[in-house]
Backbone:
């Protein structure tokens, strides 16, 4: 995108950001957040045991707009899979 196009775009503020994890993972996630000094107020329990990232923006035309995306749990296999995808993309 060209810089002159970005200049005229309205700036919207972040209303909320949430990390949503399953009930079985909430204690582990909370400990991790505390260790790396992330505010645990953005951590919430999921009703369906899936994990999500949720972002709500406050827009002037449409009011609050929420984006919610399911994410994979971060385990060893997920990390290895992402690393392999990155390596294959670099070859």
Residues:
């Amino acid at each position: 995108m060209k810089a002159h196009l970005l200049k005229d775009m309205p700036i919207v503020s972040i209303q909320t950001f949430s990390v949503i994890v399953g009930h079985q993972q909430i204690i582990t996630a909370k400990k991790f957040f505390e260790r790396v000094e992330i505010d645990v107020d953005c951590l919430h329990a999921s009703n369906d045991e899936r994990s999500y990232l949720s972002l709500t923006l406050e827009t002037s035309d449409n009011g609050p707009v929420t984006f919610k995306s399911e994410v994979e749990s971060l385990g060893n296999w997920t990390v290895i899979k992402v690393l392999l995808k990155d390596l294959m993309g670099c070859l």
In short: The longest helix spans residues 76-90. The chain has a mean pLDDT of 82. The chain is about 35% helix and 35% strand.
